[in-house]
Write a structure and sequence with these properties.
Largest sheet: 2 strands, antiparallel
Order of helices and strands: HHHHEEHH
Helix content: 55-70%
Shape: globular
Number of helices: 6
Number of strands: 2
C-alpha cells in the first residue's frame, strides 16, 4: 500500500511542478489535489517527445496513461468522484455497505493497470519526467 501512496504523491507533485513551471495561479495549485488526471498526461507526452518515443506503442501508452492518471488521482482521499469512490491509499473508509475498509486490504485499480505493457511504459516515462525535472 505504501507504493500506491508514493505513486499518488509523486504524480501529484510532478503535476504541480509542471503547473508552477507554466505559471498557473499558485493559490489554485496549493489548495487542490485534483491535477493529476488533467496534467500528468501532458507531462508524460512531453517526456515521450523528448525521448523520441513515438509510433503505435507510444500512442497506446499515452492513451492509457490518461485513464491511469485519473485512477491515480482518485487515490487521494480528497478526490472521491462525488462520493462514488471513497477508496483511497491513505485512510480507512466505509464502503457502500457500511463496512470499514483499510487501504492495506484493498486492491486498487492502478496496481492492476500498471502491470500492463503500457503501464510499464508509463512508469518509465514518469521516472524520466521526475529525473528531468530535477535538472
Amino acid at each position: 500500500m505504501p507504493r500506491m501512496h508514493f505513486l499518488q504523491m509523486a504524480c501529484e507533485k510532478l503535476a504541480k511542478a509542471h503547473l508552477c513551471g507554466v505559471n498557473a495561479p499558485l493559490e489554485n495549485v496549493q489548495t487542490s489535489h485534483a491535477y493529476v488526471a488533467s496534467t500528468l498526461p501532458v507531462v508524460l507526452r512531453q517526456q515521450a517527445l523528448s525521448l523520441n518515443f513515438s509510433g503505435r506503442a507510444a500512442k497506446t501508452a499515452l492513451a492509457e496513461a490518461k485513464h491511469l492518471a485519473r485512477e491515480i488521482e482518485l487515490l487521494s482521499p480528497s478526490v472521491n468522484a462525488g462520493g462514488k469512490r471513497p477508496d483511497n491509499c491513505e485512510y480507512p473508509w466505509e464502503d457502500e455497505n457500511g463496512v470499514l475498509r483499510s487501504p492495506l486490504e484493498w486492491a486498487f485499480n492502478p496496481s492492476r493497470l500498471l502491470l500492463a505493457r503500457s503501464g510499464r511504459s508509463m512508469l518509465k516515462l514518469l521516472r524520466g519526467a521526475v529525473e528531468n525535472w530535477q535538472k
